UniProtKB/TrEMBL annotation:
Coiled coil: none annotated. The keyword Oxidoreductase applies. Residues 1-295 form the Luciferase-like domain. This is LLM class F420-dependent oxidoreductase. One of its GO terms (molecular function) is oxidoreductase activity. It comes from the Bacteria. Its EC number is 1.-.-.-. It comes from Streptomyces griseosporeus. Keywords: Oxidoreductase.
Length: 331
């Protein structure tokens, strides 16, 4: 199992500069990669550049970036620019369709043909992220590429069958979010089958998972809040029903407010889709995810009650290093 850290994931009321502190800590502790999500507050490439300038070793992945609001060249240019101004640091890109709430509610753009847009972007980025300087920026363009390729992987966020097929055909890594080990097992099987049909080795399977060691009540509430935001997202609603959260899904569908949804979710829900509890419990959960076929856990540290995720990331780094699953701390 590989481990990385998510500096910023879903939008909440955390301090806007907290992702910089999370990333700096992850770098000091020896985590190999930090993910820089994009949302209403942060542009992923701007924040990734700031993180690259403030850290020494850690690799960067920007996104998932919504494909309905950025064209493939703009995405590739952003990654190459971040790499260029951070001393050639490897920069990967994650893409996804995002929800209608994000695409239309934040960007004011129509979310039409999202799967087709995902496929077009993935196919183009598979080339653009590795294209050397000198060639046209896009086929037939009079402008030439001047920046070196960013050198990181292409990740496709996927959940539905078509998105999984796109990841299998084009990506280096497929990303899941807020999933149980049981769902990982099902999606692992779909990914392997899709990769076989595409004639490719299956991409690495990763998941963003909430993490909180010995969590304070505020940390549990923060994780429940992240679940609440997904209760009506197509595909996730069925998953959460299957996980036993049907009452909360019904309330969300009826338009209940976030606080009411948090109250409706059982406290145990935080541990069903992540690594929440004491260290022994978390170790068992890691083993369950690995047995189900997950290859990388991207830790999304709860920071309410644990500023910067300091306790969680530090305790887990020490444990993972002892188990040989984290590199030695850099000097």
């Amino acid at each position: 199992m590989d481990f990385s850290v998510v500096a910023v994931a879903r939008e909440d009321d955390s301090p806007v500069d907290e992702p910089l502190r999370i990333a700096a800590l992850a770098d000091r502790l020896g985590y190999r990669e930090v993910w820089v999500g994009e949302g209403p507050t942060w542009d992923a490439f701007v924040l990734a550049t700031a993180i690259g300038a403030a850290t020494r070793h850690i690799a960067l992945t920007a996104g998932p970036v919504p494909v309905s609001v950025r064209d493939p060249y703009t995405i590739a240019r952003g990654a190459a620019g971040t790499s260029a101004v951070t001393g050639g640091r490897p920069v990967g890109v994650a893409i996804g369709t995002a929800s209608k709430r994000v695409v239309e509610g934040v960007h004011g753009r129509p979310r039409t043909r999202p799967a087709a847009a995902l496929e077009e972007s993935a196919a183009a980025l598979r080339h653009l992220l590795h294209a050397e300087p000198g060639g046209p920026v896009t086929p037939g363009s009079p402008f030439r590429r001047r920046l070196a390729p960013p050198g990181g992987p292409l990740t496709v966020a996927a959940f539905g069958d078509r998105a999984i097929g796109i990841a299998a055909a084009h990506a280096d890594r497929m990303l899941l979010d807020l999933v149980t080990p049981e769902q990982v097992r099902v999606l692992r099987g779909k990914l392997d089958a899709a990769a076989q049909r595409a004639g490719r080795t299956a991409p690495t399977l990763a998941a963003w998972l909430p993490a909180a060691v010995d969590p304070a009540p505020a940390s549990v509430r923060q994780v429940l809040g992240s679940i609440a935001g997904y209760l009506t997202v197509p595909g996730y609603a069925d998953m959460f029903r299957a996980a036993g959260f049907g009452e909360a899904v019904d309330l969300a569908t009826a338009g209940a407010e976030r606080d009411a949804l948090i109250e409706a979710l059982p406290k145990e829900a935080a541990a069903r889709v992540g690594l929440v509890g004491d260290l022994k419990t978390i170790q068992a959960r890691i083993d369950a995810y690995a047995e189900a076929g997950l290859e990388e856990i991207a830790l999304v540290p709860a920071t309410a009650g644990d500023p910067g995720g300091t306790r969680t990331l530090t305790v887990l780094a020490a444990d993972l290093r002892g188990r040989g699953e984290l590199r030695d701390q850099p000097q």
